Amino acid sequence: SFYYPLYRFAGAEIAAGRFPLWNPTLWGGTPFAANQQTGLFSPFNLAAFALARPFGYGTLQWLAIGHVWLASALAYAFCRDFGARRSAALIGGVTFAYSGFIIAHLGHYPMVAVAPWLPAAFLALRRAILRRSLPWTLATAGALLLAILGGHQQIFLYLLTATALYWLFLAWTASP
How many CA atoms lie within 13 A of 38 on its CB side? Predict the structure, then answer.
């Protein structure tokens, strides 16, 4: 009930050829692009705003479903990077994507849009440190960028803290 009107407004503005910097329909007008929970700058949301004409509730549902699937696939890839068998990695991916946190917050879409980037950041960071690889370091930064653009700063800060702690762990255990 809170996010759908925001996303529909962004979709309508982009469909009309205007970038939604200001929302005149809330509280006598309010900055729109400055509101992080709009997820306005997320590439996934921007694509949905540009392609879904009109942006309907079903589009928002597909965005949520896509992010749950993405969470599962990225957690699976992270588990496989540890050498887990396919079945064990599948259990890890399903457990992460369908955890109480993600499923309970399906109605709070920005939280669901940020959560999948945790296993992506962990995977890229692990490969960056163990392989001493600049491309994987950039991939870590990309995962963190996509997380902050997802639209929920508190979950992003949790993700950033967890990634920093994982970095400390990897740096401590991977050094000669």
Answer: 22
CA distances from 102 to 6, 42, 49, 72 (A): 21, 19, 23, 11
To 10 degrees, the CA torsion angle through 36, 39, 108, 113?
-120
How far from each other are the two terminal CA atoms of the chain, in whole angstroms? Answer: 53
pLDDT tens-digit map of 72-96: 999 999 999 989 999 999 999 999 9
> At a CB cut-off of 8 Å and minimum separation 6, what does 115 contact?
67, 71, 101, 102, 155, 159
pLDDT, tens digit, for every residue of 31-74?
999 999 899 999 999 999 999 989 999 999 999 999 999 999 99
Q: How far, in Å, CA of 31 to CA of 122, rounded?
A: 34
Within the chain, strands assigned E span 22-23, 30-31
Q: How many CB atoms lie within 10 A of CB 136?
A: 18
DSSP-derived 3-state class of residue 31 = strand
